[in-house]
Amino acid sequence: AKAGAILPYRRARHMLEDQFPLGQPPVVETVRQRTLLVGARLECQAVAPPRGKPAAAKSVALFIDTGHVRAMRGCQGRTFEVMVAQASNDNGRQVVFAGVPAEAYHEAQQLRGVLQGLGATETTPVTILSDGAAGPRGLGQTASPGPTRHALDWFHLAMRIQHLAQTV
After folding, report:
1. What is residue 126's predicted lDDT score, i.e. its pLDDT?
2. Angstrom distance (rounded) from CA 64 to CA 36
3. 4-8, 32-36, 38-42, 124-128: lowest mean pLDDT where?
4. How big is the CA angle at 88 (ends 143 and 120), to the nearest 5 degrees?
5. Is residue 155 over pLDDT 80?
6. Is 84 exposed, middle or buried (0-12, 13-18, 19+ CB in 10 A)?
7. Is 165 within 8 Å of 157 (Cβ atoms)?
8. Residue 89 main-chain phi, psi, to 5 deg
9. Exposed/middle/buried for 73, CB within 10 Å: 0-12, 13-18, 19+?
10. How far apart are CA 155 and CA 132, in angstroms?
11. What confidence tens digit (pLDDT) does each residue in 63-91 have?
12. 146 burial class (0-12, 13-18, 19+ CB within 10 angstroms)?
């Protein structure tokens, strides 16, 4: 499943054939279907409420940003957006979260599970650090079980100052 997720399915099939010469390898469509089944199972696990109740955190910080992945030459229809987040609590525990917004059906629920796993409750303040765009900021606010506060992250703040300096 991991090979099918990070490689083109045809290459993953050839890798399986090289690593495990146990006879006829599965056809490419079988590799694709099995990868999608494992992905669906992992997505359901991420949406499921955490087992046990973690210790309540005093505060949680959520660093969130998106980026656009351009297509390779000749594949102009294959561009997509990627969302990456890192959440940490006041105890120093960190969790990295990523997704493709166009393909993630339960992205807010998954991120809420991450925040709750870090100890976020209805009273835990969540500080969202992002570039100020509506998408990442809105996702953080939707996923947070408690009150949120938004702050512009240092990189994007510096980029805005740099743009202003160049204009002057």
Report:
1. 92
2. 26
3. 4-8
4. 45
5. no
6. middle
7. no
8. -105, 180
9. exposed
10. 12
11. 998 887 776 666 656 677 788 889 999 88
12. middle
Q: What is the pTM of this model?
A: 0.65
Work out the average pLDDT over 39-57: 74
Q: Is residue 150 classed as helix, strand or coil in its secondary structure?
A: strand
- Lookup: tokens for 90: 């006041």
Provide the residue type at 109 as one letter: Q
Alpha helix (H) ranges present in 48-133?
107-117
What would the mean pLDDT of 121-135 be, rounded to a whole number? 87
Contact call for residues 128 and 150 (beta carbons, < 8 A): yes
How do strand 60-69 and strand 94-99 relate by DSSP bridges? unpaired
DSSP-derived letter for residue 56 is P
